[in-house]
Amino acid sequence: MTAAVIVKALRKSFGATEVLRGIDLEVAAGDVTCIIGPSGSGKSTLLRCIAFLDQATDGYVFVQGEPLGFAPDASGARARLPDARVRDVRAKIGMVFQQFNLWPHRTALGNVTEALTTVRGIAPAEARERGLAQLRKVGLAAHADHFPAQLSGGQQQRVAIARALALEPQIMLFDEPTSSLDPELTGEVLNVMRALASEGMTMIVVSHEIGFAASVANRIVFLDGGKLLLNGTPKEVFGQPRHPRLEQFLETYLDRGAAILA
Amino acid sequence: MSFDIGLIWSRMPDILGGFGLTLVIWLVGCLAGIALGFLVAVLRRNVAGLNIPLAAWMEVTRGTPFLIQLFLLYFGGPFIGLSLEPITAGLLGFTLYGAAYFSEIFRAGFAAVPRGHIEAGECLGLSQGQIMRRIIVPEMAVLVLPALVNMIVLLLKETAVLSIITVPELTMMISAIGSENFVFVESLFLLALFYWAMVEIAGWLGRQAEVKLASFRPAT
Amino acid sequence: MTWQLFQLLVTAAGLTVFISAVSIMIALVLGTIVSVVTLSPKPAFALAGRTYISFFRGVPLLVQLLLIYNLLPVMGIDLPGIVAAIIGLSLCTAAFQAENLRGAFASLPRGLVEAAEMAGFSAAQILRRVRVPIAFRLALPALANEAIFTLRASSLVSVVGVVELTRTAQDLASSTFLPLQLFAAAGLLYLLLSWTIAALGHVMERRMRWGRV
Fold first, then answer.
1. Per-residue pLDDT tens for A144-184?
2. Domain range C18-162, its CATH number among 2.40.128.30, 2.30.29.30, 1.10.10.10, 1.10.3720.10
3. Does ipTM surpass 0.85 in this model?
4. pTM of the entire structure?
5. Touching, C vs B (3+ Cβ pairs under 8 A)
6. Fold classification of B6-216 (topology level)
């Protein structure tokens, strides 16, 4: 069976700085992979390159076996795929952003149904049913008619998850989904993600929530300085003896998380 | 379409005269307008009884066309004993019009000076006058600079309206030459390019001034 | 000044409203197109858009109106003054609206577009469903302000022979020798119309209460 996501020799530079220095990664279907690492280690960039929101400088991304963004052409050279092809492959992916990125002029329900009607051509009544079902799933059916500005950060992020799920993706990407939330609001979002993981959704999560990573993920990827340093089960990665860079990261950035693991 | 260089050359004194008058009205009007606008903003802020009448005056100026204001002054003036030459009426009308916009810019600038800076001055024992001169005005001046420059450039184009009350500025002179010699469209093209160049140059100068003065921008 | 004279002014104000409203509408559509062109990744398009904005903002409206009014017959196009007036007013206002919208498009959070990209929107769908509505909301105060400018600027179309409010006041003033009263009354009508546009702008702002982005 093909892996859900394959990342091959991925490189990304912004100007003269190389943020990703050759990443290889395979995510199996049903895996929940957490990408952790210090700020500036390239973890968000990696996720954005997988989604083709940032264009990698070199290397490839395959989603369920199909190349996203770039593919080797007949002569083996790296070639940009047409936009329509990018959209087709991207349809397998749902993405949740750190800043939620809900469209402010659409209600919670409108955010969820917008792509159903506009992109998928689903009739409004049917889209409404599906949208409400998704909102119910994240516990926000009662807030369907609220505009994003009328919702708390945690609620907005749950709507954003519902919006992504409505398009029935095979793989969900989460880019620091709780990083711009007040601490007391992270729980509701993590619970929704936990429920999603238990349904068998393939998930790639960039997060600072080490506790979540340790308890929900079955793969942990540790990035440092643009390189993939560790890739294993939580037990392998967090268990003793720990890699010294990981130890340093856990101490410096997340004494909170380290305590959970102790 | 042809344009006779010889014609331009032979009427150069008139063209230069119109251009000069446009520049003079623009610069003098802007300076006087800024001074008057500043005064209005200060009075509205500090003299309670003047706020409402001055606000009403500003509202009327900003809510009616410049041309109507000019007509009122130039054609209506004589009926209340105010008979003005076109140039005088034009300059006065232009100044009053500009002052309304400038005063609004200054008012916004005053409101943008952080309250804490004024309180800090009070704590140090500065008088109200000293706070105004030494804290509020310098800070405000830097804050309003971009809006001020923008307005000054916009007003350059408004001077063309003065031609309607026969002020012999650039628009009036060039269109007069054009219609006398049956090259009206050509002369209007030339005029348009002329203004375009002037506005671009004025805008560029304004940006240079902003960059130069930006180093004084107070920390926010 | 008599009631009859005032009624003549009110009737003429109807034409002012018509010319302004049509020009404001055309300018919003044209301004949106120009601002989108200006933000195009193709340098030639961007340059064309910027040149349009620069020219029509850089030349006095009076000169533009005279130019269009006199140019059209030379080109063999015979149109009434009111059409020339609407064309001139629209072209000029569009440049200002384009500049307002350009600022709004530029300040649009990138993530809103990315969310649409991930949801499979095409570039055209993103423009229509996400960028334009949000940019309009962001620019609304500036757009309404510009609409008021258009109303006042419409007084200049009196020079191309359109007998709207200003021209009517002017004609009546010279025949009745009551310039003070007539221009004051015309000014009052303009003021009321300005307030009406401002009020409409506020109503729209309130109705688009989703407000901040």
1. 999 999 999 999 999 999 999 999 999 999 999 998 888 88
2. 1.10.3720.10
3. yes
4. 0.85
5. yes
6. MetI-like fold (1.10.3720)
